[in-house]
Amino acid sequence: MIETLTNQVSIPVCLSLSACVINVLSSELNAQNPPSFVMPSGNIYCALIGKDNNMLRCEIQSMLNPLPPQPYPNYCQFDWGAGFLLPQQGKPEVLCIGDTIAGTNNILSYGKTWQHSGFKCISQRTGLMCGNPGGHGFFLSRQQWQAF
Question: Mind telling me which InterPro entries this protein's record contains (predicted)?
């Protein structure tokens, strides 16, 4: 496949019918499972980060409720409790961040499941449940949270 750039827009040119079909199927799969999403409420944003998309970062605009204590005084000089960072293996960690991943337009509708790079998230009206291949994960909502 050859790509031609026109006004910074990528236009695929297929050298064979099979290459076009493979490209279309791959594009449809990526469109169904983008590497980031936002809940319909706009309160929770998630994105794959890190080398090889090996971590899932989910932020909750209303902050974790109740706010967990920091491991020790002045541990976090930024926004403590803005969500979780979930590695592919291991338990989630509370975010200490000075930036945001907010702004994605990919809405994960209630009742839908998102799967990417071994992570799985389920969107419900009651909140968001995400897990990694190792069986660890978290639940986020305005009213409560849980890490497991």
Answer: DUF6636
